[in-house]
């Protein structure tokens, strides 16, 4: 069986590397390999100390490679298979996506922080660019603390006649189920509640299977106990954020799409608001 690969994005501007720490924790439990990737670049004023741009590139990459070896030494001591890669590019988030494809990563892990409304309004943040373009799920981590609650929360969208969301829900729940099994955690589902009368049609249930309350119908569809299905009236952002506060999961699993144009902007804004409204590690599936 092919070994899974976790790609951890190293931030060259920080001493603490919580993405790598999280990758180490996951690899120690699952037997996955880790690919530590760091993209670096110097602003023009910093290159003045070198005789040429080529010298600046070579010296900086040498320093980064040395740092990567030091950072990954504890993983090797645990017999975790590790590879490292240093790359030179000003647009680091594009390089991350390309490296993710080169390494065949099954999961991309990156540290993150909340963004203000002004930051979101001025430009698309690098985090969200990666969420839309990454060739695999992305785990945005807030802390290197181990997952101890043994609880995973998956956010699904129940909308009538929406094939894209139906497929995305399947991908979200599949990833969440796998994560819950590997972490020995219980899986909960959350959704902004649709009209109950339409729920059987949304889930495409047969008449014989359409009995029971909403939690039971959704739970049966996705393999989750009814008492672990949480439906609330309100906007998705608010419903999800409140469920995170109430349940205190280790990980929130949610989805995003690669749509562009006005529809993509609207969908993107919803997902970004959820990410900035919660303080929890978040696995994003597309």
The CATH topology of the largest domain is given as: Rossmann fold
Q: Biggest sheet, strands in spatial order?
A: 3-2-1-4-5-10-9-6-7-8
Q: Please give the largest β-sheet.
A: 10 strands, mixed
Q: In percent terms, what proportion of residues is strand?
A: 15-25%
CATH class of the largest domain: Alpha Beta
Helix content: 40-55%
Per CATH, which architecture of the largest domain? 3-Layer(aba) Sandwich
Account of the 3D structure:
The chain is of the alpha/beta class and 286 residues long. It folds into two domains: 5-141, Rossmann fold, CATH 3.40.50; 151-285, 3-Layer(aba) Sandwich (Rossmann fold). The protein contains ten helices and ten strands. The protein has helices at 18-30, 53-77, 92-103, 117-122, 126-133, 163-183, 196-202, 214-222, 236-247, 261-277; strands spanning 5-10, 33-40, 82-88, 107-111, 138-141, 151-155, 186-192, 229-232, 251-255, 281-285. A ten-stranded mixed beta sheet has the order 3-2-1-4-5-10-9-6-7-8, with helices on both faces.
Question: What does this entry show, briefly?
Answer:
With 286 residues, this protein is an alpha/beta fold. The protein has helices at 18-30, 53-77, 92-103, 117-122, 126-133, 163-183, 196-202, 214-222, 236-247, 261-277; strands at 5-10, 33-40, 82-88, 107-111, 138-141, 151-155, 186-192, 229-232, 251-255, 281-285. It has two domains: 5-141, 3-Layer(aba) Sandwich (Rossmann fold), CATH 3.40.50; 151-285, Rossmann fold.
């Amino acid at each position: 069986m092919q070994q899974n690969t976790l790609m951890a994005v190293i931030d060259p501007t920080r001493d603490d590397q919580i993405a790598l720490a999280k990758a180490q924790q996951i690899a120690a439990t699952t037997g996955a390999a880790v690919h530590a990737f760091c993209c670096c670049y110097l602003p023009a004023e910093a290159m003045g100390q070198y005789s040429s741009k080529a010298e600046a590139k070579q010296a900086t990459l040498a320093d980064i490679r040395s740092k990567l070896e030091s950072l990954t030494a504890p993983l090797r001591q645990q017999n975790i298979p590790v590879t490292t890669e240093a790359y030179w590019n000003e647009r680091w988030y594009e390089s991350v996506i390309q490296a993710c494809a080169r390494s065949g990563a099954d999961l991309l892990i990156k540290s993150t922080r909340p963004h203000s409304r002004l930051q979101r309004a001025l430009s698309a943040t690098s985090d969200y660019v990666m969420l839309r373009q990454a060739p695999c799920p992305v785990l945005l981590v807030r802390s290197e603390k181990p997952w101890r609650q043994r609880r995973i929360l998956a956010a699904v969208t129940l909308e009538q006649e929406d094939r894209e969301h139906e497929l995305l829900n399947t991908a979200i729940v599949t990833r969440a189920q796998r994560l819950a099994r590997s972490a020995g955690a219980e899986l909960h589902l959350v959704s902004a509640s649709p009209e109950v009368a339409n729920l059987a049609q949304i889930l495409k249930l047969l008449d014989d299977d359409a009995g029971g309350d909403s939690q039971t119908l959704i739970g049966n569809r996705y393999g989750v106990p009814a008492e672990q299905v949480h439906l609330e009236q309100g906007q998705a952002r608010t419903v999800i954020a409140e469920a995170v506060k109430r349940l205190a999961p280790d990980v929130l699993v949610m989805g995003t799409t690669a749509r562009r144009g006005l529809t993509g902007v609207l969908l993107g804004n919803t997902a970004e608001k959820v990410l900035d409204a919660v303080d929890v590690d978040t696995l994003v599936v597309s």
